[in-house]
Amino acid sequence: MKRRQFALFAITLMLATLIAACGGTPTTTAPTAAPAPQPTTAPAPEGRKFTIGISNPFISSEYRTQMIQSLIEVNKEYMERGITNELVIESADTDVAGQIQQLQNLINKGVDAILVNPSDVNGLNDTLQEAINKGIIVISVDQELNTPGVYNVGIDQKEWAKISARWLAEKLGGQGNIVLIEGFPGHPANVARMEGVEEVLKEYPNIKVLGRETGKWDEATGQQVMSNFLASFPNLDGYWTQDGMAIGAMQAVMAANPSKWPVLVGEGRCQFLQLWDQRLKEDPNFETIAVANPPGVSPTGLRIAINMLQGKQVDKSKLGGANGLSFVIPVPVIVTKDNFQEVFTTVCKDKPATYLLDGIMTDEEVQQFFVK
């Protein structure tokens, strides 16, 4: 089956009013060079079922748990329609070498497309290229790779970080002492996010970064790192962090209960919103920000992969991303003091504390971005 290179698109998603309140939707980056020609994608034979492989090297995260579960649920829709087989899932805590083995396993099983949440910016390139050379569609989800022939589906991670970093800087009045708690150094999303934070802080020379440590995208580790920072810098003015580490960091502040709380950023997860609500009962003037990092970009990527396998052509005018092969999805939800009660009482009412604020494109929504 032959395939042709598709140019990808930037799309507009839900809750535009929330996004507009925080400065508009993320922008896409024009490609710097045209990618190499790719095989043409032809429709599959009648009755042909596709097999999609998943490579996930990090399972110690509620984000990844929700991501995998959503992938399974969305794939069931296609299985019931006779379009796909069960997903082939390679998911375990592992390093770059281990993820390369995951990818080799998927290649050897003859999957038609691979969705990969990469553990390294460049370490998987040779193996991903091997998959492409075998006619497998490769899509990086959640984290963008600037790799020839690899498609990307996800939010703009740099812009995602800049939203909360700019909020923090403005709440500090452009001055003060802060600390940063990052995820795993070297991971594509973390690299992009920290670049975004650094870009924002360059605009505020009177904000001083006293320390920067990794919280390993882990709540407990984030709490310990924040506790250490509070002990070292008792007069801290603020801090920036990301994902589940924001929950641990706020728990550390709540436990220390300093006379002056640092200005802090949060996470788009019901558990963090519960802590936010708890703090409001003690301090009605408390405010923070929670920017959703949607696990739903992965099942959205699954929908895109299936449509590509069916021979549908992406609108070439919708090109985006660092390598010109990215479906750049705007952040679906941004929570501030202005909409906190609405999101907390509606979205989180019937959801577990671990639920991340999310957004998944429907199959119908995906269709509009393919050439008719």
From TrEMBL:
Alphabetized UniProt keyword annotations: Signal, Sugar transport, Transport
Annotated signal sequence range: 1-20
Disordered, as annotated region: 29-48
Transport among keywords: yes
GO molecular function: carbohydrate binding
A GO cellular component annotation in the UniProt record: cell envelope
Localization annotation: Cell envelope
Domain Periplasmic binding protein: 52-313
Domain of life according to the entry: Bacteria
Family: Belongs to the bacterial solute-binding protein 2 family.
Record-linked PANTHER family: D-ALLOSE-BINDING PERIPLASMIC PROTEIN-RELATED (PTHR46847:SF1)
Protein name as catalogued: ABC-type sugar transport system periplasmic component-like protein
Record organism: Roseiflexus castenholzii (strain DSM 13941 / HLO8)
